[in-house]
Amino acid sequence: MIGKILGNRYEIIEKIGGGGMALVYKARCQLLNRYVAVKILRPEFTSDEEFIGKFRRESQAAASLSHPNIVNIYDVGTDDHDIYYIVMEYVKGKTLKQMIKEKGPLSSEETINIAKQISLALHHAHSNHIVHRDIKPHNILITDDGRVKVTDFGIARAVTSSTVTNTGNVIGSVHYFSPEQARGGYIDEKSDIYSLGIVMYEMATGRLPFEGESPISIALKHIHEDVIPPTLINQEIPKALEDIIMKAIQKDQLKRYSSAKEILEDLNQALKQPMGNFVKFDEDDDSPTQMIPVIKEKEPLKNKTSYAELKPKRKNNHRWIVWGAVATAFVLALLFIGGMFYLKDIFIAQEKTVPSVIGKSYEEAKENLENLGLKVELGQEQYSSEFERGQVMFQDPKAGEIVKAGYPIRLIISKGPKMTEVPTLVNRMVNEIDFILENAKLKGGIVKYEYSTLPIGIVISQSPEAGKSVPENTEVNVVVSQGPETKLVLMPNLIGEKIEDAKKMLETLNLILGNVDYKSDERVEKGRVISQSIPAGTEVEEKRVVDLVVSKGPENVGQPSEEDELQMKPVSLMINFQRAQREEFVLRILKKQNGISTEIYKATHRKSKGSQSIVIEGRGRAVIEVYFDDIPVDTVKIDFETGSTYD
Ligand code: ATP
Ligand code: MG
Question: What reactions does this protein catalyze (predicted)?
Fold first, then answer.
């Protein structure tokens, strides 16, 4: 991985960590020239399509969050569908887990301070309807200057049952799971509050409340066992902090803090009044089974009876009156009850519980409701991306409500997703497509870059194709040209080789043989190469033209020939790339000597590389001109004999 460039811009520098589903690397964004953290999904997950889909959706959702206590997500991408990654803010510091490991229990102020920042992060995410689901000290990063940044929002949601069985690691967070998570129950914002409570417990005591031999045994403890009160482990924990922890980790969701804001308020209060008794716990006896008032009512009733029994004489005296009254009452009651039965159907209709018909076909829904004696009323059909055409997408009253028989239930039937035609993106510039897609009520999908002879940035292909009818908000993927593929080859040394071999070599490397000059030479055998226009060892683009000088053998016997006359002298030139205007640019070097200008070097370089030393060869004095993309950037006068510059 190290050295690899993802998405054409993130250069992987080093590994910084790894968890159950991913490895995390430090990387450099070449475009914005900053460090980022790149989280790359472990290969065992990349074949799980359900997981990949969720991973992408969740990380895209998390990318919408922006808060100083949340690790910013910059990008979500894939490389050839076998590397899936999230690019995020690089946080220099350590995880809260490391911090607790190193320091042991934290002071109460520190615990509260960190908990406050986590609560702020949760408050922001919860307001955006994102539940973290995996709050644990490994996902809490602390910068060197003490700021808290929570990472991995919502990503745990991508974990399916199949991924859990694929790798044992994933289940590691069970130490922080809420009872409802451990049970596989309904998870909401309060599940994050519970996990935060466990994290606070760990910060304050240096220990986890529940440990066990297996994930299952730990999960069971979350569901059934009470924690050891934090102050029994660390007496220095003030009352208010202990109360907050205990309220956050209530097993019953309803008894916990109902929002991150609530716990935040108590944390603030705890800083002011560490020993205060302000944390409100829900009493146990407000449960729905309330016996007490009923018993209280019976009591005076009993007393009345006994009071009456104490005065039997009085009753006896008026026995006939009593019997008469009883008989009359009895008859009246009979009449009344009879009447009730008779009139019931007229005045008191039967009560019905409204069933759920959402997702059912209209016919089925109608039948269900009418069988129950309810009426069906139709609202105007609506488009829906969730429900198929003809399905009930909305009902009023909702399922579970009690209504009288004959009550109308209003249904709205789905027209299915609203369709739209895919516009033509091929041959458009990549920066135009978001606008075009938005106008067509579609979304941008995966943008993949490929080499092509088309200009850089032009869309080569798209999927779905133009003209197709698709549901609104469908993602359209495109392949974009990144220009022609430029392969670099290393210029070989041809000096001393036979011209035929030199030709073959150039051909094999896809270089082109240019001018071949024949010169007489004392020392070089006839037919062998004396010099080459591009020095050996230079990286050049394919199809570059290479001129050669070939020996005719010795000619004029007796002509003085200096030993090193034709020996070129190398000089190393340090070129700084700072003035290049583009990331990829063509560096050309021209040598001007005796009024003749020759190109002695041409190759593509990357600006981000900074600089490079390039070896050029020559004899005597020459003016060297350096060009970036045909723009002159430097001129140096070089004396090849001394290897230095002259004026
Ligand atoms: P899990 O897979 O359950 O999330 P985890 O949180 O330990 O477990 P990762 O999320 O993959 O694993 O993170 C691994 C490590 O990488 C972290 O413990 C942390 O040290 C480091 N790390 C993660 N994100 C960043 C970041 N944005 N900046 C710096 N370091 C990071
Ligand atoms: Mg993590």
Answer: L-threonyl-[protein] + ATP = O-phospho-L-threonyl-[protein] + ADP + H(+); L-seryl-[protein] + ATP = O-phospho-L-seryl-[protein] + ADP + H(+)
CATH code, 5-89: 3.30.200.20
| pLDDT tens-place string over residues 58-113 | 788 788 889 999 999 998 888 876 888 999 999 999 999 999 999 999 999 999 99
3-state secondary structure of 341: helix
User: Please, where in the chain does CATH 3.30.10.20 lie?
Assistant: 351-413, 419-481
Active site residues: 134
Which residue is closest in CA terms to ligand 1's atom 7? 19
Whole-number Å distance between alpha carbons of 246 and 200: 10
CA separation for the pair 314, 205 (Å, rounded): 74
Residue range 419-481 in CATH 3.30.10.20: yes
pTM check: above 0.70:
no
Residue 39 annotated as lining a ligand binding site: yes
Instruction: Please tell me the CATH code under which domain 351-413 is placed.
Output: 3.30.10.20
Residue range(s) of every CATH 3.30.200.20 domain in the chain: 5-89
Which residue lies with its CA nearest to atom 18 of ligand 1? 138
User: What is the CA 334 to chain-centroid distance, rounded?
Assistant: 72
Assigned token pair, 14:
């080093």
Q: Write the residue with the smallest CA distance to atom 9 of ligand 1.
A: 19
Q: Is 21 in the pocket of ligand 1 (CB under 6 A)?
A: yes
> Is 173 close to ligand 1, i.e. is its CB under 6 Å away?
yes
The tens digit of pLDDT for each residue in 361-397 reads 999 999 999 988 888 988 888 888 888 889 999 999 8
Q: For the chain, give the percent of residues with pLDDT over 70.
A: 85
